[in-house]
Amino acid sequence: MFVNFRRIRRCQYVQLMTTCLVLSVVMVCWEQLDKSVVSHVKSYSYRYLVNSFTYINKSLTIPREQARSFSNFRYLLNHPDKCAGKDVLLLLFVKTSPENIERRNAIRSTWGNETYIQNALGVTVKVVFALGAPQARKEEPSWTKRFHLQEQLIHEDRLHGDLIQQDFLDSFHNLTLKLILQFHWTHSHCAHARFLMTADDDIFVHIPNLVSYLRDVSSRSVTDFWVGRVHRGAPPIRSKDSKYFVPYEMYQWLSYPDYTAGAGYVVSSDVADKIYQATLTLNASLYIDDVFMGICGITVGVSPQEHVYFSGEGKAPYHLCIYDQMITSHGHVEDIYDLWKTATDPQVKQKTSGLVGRLYCAAVKLALLCKPYYFNTYPCKAAFL
After folding, report:
1. Member of which family (predicted)?
2. Are 284 and 176 in contact (CB under 8 A)?
3. 211-267: pLDDT as tens digits
4. Domain extents in the chain
């Protein structure tokens, strides 16, 4: 039998080169694989098998005097009588940055219009904006930039009377301070509000649907109420290139506690008070505010509940069948006026009601929401509700 040794050697060479290439690719990609896949496996194992978050409370508990440093900031703008003498269904805190005046005006003209809510929906909802002190641009002297922007904020607040500002630098790494500001202000000035909502200034809130939902919840005297888009078993990001990088010194565990996406969530008044109490004894140096909210939650024994029509980081599809049950949608700035007009049109309810309308919308939502590549908005199960 004739054997072609040259061909065998050639095949072996090709196999060797292929193996080396595969190993090289694996070695190059391993760091990324470890960050995205392995970290999630570890996180879910910790969350669902070990589930030992009791140590977080102990390790992050600090003396009250030290914890006060995260909340003891001077108010630059304040309206302590905003809720006084009123039966407030919802206190709605919008997290905003000093320069985002157009976003705030858009909210005041659409879903955050207190007069519309009172007249059209018959309830009192108070809308305020939480912000810190302005930052300076690189091309301008720090004091000049901050002075002019602060003057604009003072003028804006004189017109609208809805800015709640403290003297900490308004930045991504101070978002937890902004969260603490909201719960402390609520405790001091609007504790009687039945619900507290915290939201970003680039989300859309379908306020008629939200009010209807909260009225129903309120009629049942629900306690320990905390709803939104829930993240479970999320791992800390250890890559220094990420905006959400968290070093081991700041948070050493493999998984975060359950928390709701910071874009928008609602808590009942009793939960708001419990979170306030938690902030009095916790180290708030963790600058990811929605995760810190989750830590406060486990400290006081409150868990978030999923609501399928609270969006995460994604934008909900534009369709009247979605508007019918929409609560929040994330990522709206330029389109907020058009979306408000379309989503709150009375014809939405008319066209989606009745047997035919419900069957039509069930098919539409199935097509829109049950796609394998559609992430961070309403889950597929929303199509069946």
Report:
1. Belongs to the glycosyltransferase 31 family.
2. yes
3. 999 999 999 989 999 999 999 888 898 888 899 999 988 998 888 999 999 999 999
4. 1-39, 65-306, 320-384
Please give the Cα distance from 363 to 167 (Å, whole number).
51
What pLDDT sits at residue 52?
A: 60
SS3 260: strand
Count CA within 13 A, CB hemisphere, residue 69. Answer: 7
Instruction: Classify the phi-psi angles of 155: left when phi > 0, otherwise alpha if psi is within -120 to 50, otherwise beta.
Output: alpha
Amino acid at 322: I
- The helix/strand/coil state of 9 is helix
- For residue 27, the SS3 value is helix
Between residues 4 and 56, the one the model is more confident about: 56
**CA–CA dist 304, 294 (Å, integer):** 8
Is the separation of the CB atoms in 281 and 56 below 8 Å?
no
Architecture label for domain 65-306: Alpha-Beta Complex (3.90)
Dist. CA 92–CA 264, nearest whole Å: 10
Give the torsion sign (CA, 94, 95, 97, 102).
negative
